[in-house]
Amino acid sequence: MSKQIADARVGPNRFLLPFLKAGFRSVRREIVEAGWSDDSALSYAAWVSVWWRWASWLMVIAEAVYRPDLQGGTYLPFVVLHLFYVSGNGLVHYRLATGRSVSWAAVLALSAMDFVLVTSAVFAEGGFDNFYYLAYYPSLALVAVACPSFVVGILWATVIAAVYGVLSLFVGSGLDLQANEEEVLALRLFCMYAVMSSVNLVAWRERTRRHHSEERQRALLEQGLEMSQVIHDTVAQTAYTLRLGVDTARTLAGDANEELSGSLAALSVLSRSIVWELRRPIDTGLVFVGTDLTETLRVHTETFGRVASVAAEVVQLGDEVPLPVDVRVGLFSVAHNALTNALLHSEADRVEVILDFGQEWIRLSITDNGVGLPEDYARRGRGFTGMEADAARMDGRLEVGPAEPNGGTTVTCRVPLPRAAVGG
């Protein structure tokens, strides 16, 4: 008999707990599969919400100054909450202002902070008869932007709607049924779901559009890499074979015929230049597949050493930080043009590429021990003009001068670290 009573007592729990566990697993799976918005979307949503909170807080301060009688009473319990509110919002604002990334956990923490503060204000002001509930809507919109999952958004809207519904019914004077306030409450709750659904739909459309754009860019990148491989397997190999043939012809011809020797020497330089320029699109592909800048320059410089028959090496100073593709492509372009000048004009037998990662700057230096630069070097060709344009696009600067103490030339490009890399 006692066993049956015990079974009857635990019966509901035996069915309720598995249901709750299954629901929790479903929500967790929904979050994992849906993921979270990318860093740019999270940062933008955080920026908007941060400024919205500052504006709301200033409105509260202005009301307290305009109505000094409200500084006591109902406003006193919010002192601690406002301290947390300002501190949390200020921390997120500081991370954004200094270029640091904002995680989805921080965005959800902001939304939860809004929920606690708004709920406290609604409770203190009598439940239904105030307009503090309007502050729930930005909190819902923030979650809708941060999390792509429609299920998670609806669950969060349900929590807020349930809490606000309870406060409206049981706090203060409750609802005036004769004034049809229950219809107003239903409309407010419906608007919560409408805001969540609308923002989630807009965010979903933007994410889908961005995803399709990334897919197109990825397809173009793969096409470019395939083309680079075709160049390497056909044209580059042919040009390399031609260069070997020209060098062999120079050796066989000797110095007996000066005109022939000069023509073969010029043809040898031209063939080396062709082989070198064909390597540019091939090695640039390493940047787009995610290879570090140092490793990309090391591969490119080793190729330069083989083409130019000189000693060439890359030296890394400091730890490389994650860099945007445009910065890596720009620095790669500067290095390639500087090496091209060394190949064509320097007559050097040694080239050194230094990549220095500082606290706020990246310094790329290409130094050769050749004959140096003529006075009118800036007006010759488009090499230095292209390097200056690359540096300008990265908000950096280009410096060209003699290498000390052994002569030659040094080309230096200094670019600021991206704000996200500085913050990281």
What is the topological layout?
Elements: H1 2-34, H2 39-66, H3 79-97, H4 104-124, H5 136-146, H6 150-170, H7 181-253, H8 258-288, H9 293-308, E1 311-317, H10 325-346, E2 350-357, E3 361-368, H11 383-393, E4 397-402, E5 409-416, H12 419-423
Parallel strand pairs: 1-2
Antiparallel strand pairs: 2-3, 3-5, 4-5
Describe it for me?
- The chain is of the alpha+beta class.
- The chain is 69% helix and 9% strand.
- The chain contains twelve helices and five strands.
- The protein has a five-stranded mixed sheet with strand order 1-2-3-5-4.
- Strand 1, helix 10 (325-346) and strand 2 (350-357) form a beta-alpha-beta unit.
Keywords:
424 residues, alpha+beta, 5 strands, disordered N terminus
